[in-house]
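[INFO] parsing input record for NAD(P)-binding domain-containing protein
[DEBUG] input buffer:
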Amino acid sequence: MRITVFGATGGTGRQLVEQAVAAGHEVTAVVRDPGRLPIRHAQLEVATADVTDAAQLRPLVAGADAAVSGLGSPTNKGAGIASTGTRAILRALEAEGVERFVAVSAAPVGDQPQDESALFRATMLPMVRRAFKNVYADLAVMENEIRGSRLGWTIVRPPQLTDEPGTGSWQLREGTAVPHRHRITRADLAGAVLAMAQDGSTARKIYGVAN
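[DEBUG] output buffer:
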């Protein structure tokens, strides 16, 4: 496959790039600062662009089989990039006729399963949502933009991300977070995203994912 990766210099984005080229895909990694992506590979093109400018993004998605995005800010101060960047990405994908798009959001943005513990829903979740209020508001706007598009999109909502080694496995639940599972490695998240990018049955659906 030919895959365009957005947010390629973030923790999840780097995993997406590394795993995609290791699997034999042709990858275009879209970055603001190429120096922040030290990965080099014969099947990797590192392209510098303003992710909020659809005109700059169009040639970077032209001919792609899929695009995947790890765009987002880890802090409230930087919130806004997920929604504004994704808006431009969607315009570029639609203009170039690229159908498949998988985007990473976050578990606190969506509904929690009824079989999740009452303690988590009553205490931990509200605390996390307050602490990262702007981040999750940005991701919620991003999700609305994606759901309103004509693409074969998939939204993936992970819980807390870790830099531990990947396990090579993960759990999915359609529509809500995975109950009682509140962590996932970035490596496994990237693996799940790439698997979904190649699986048309996940199109126009939202999934919780966790280890």
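[INFO] The chain has a mean pLDDT of 97.
[INFO] shutting down worker
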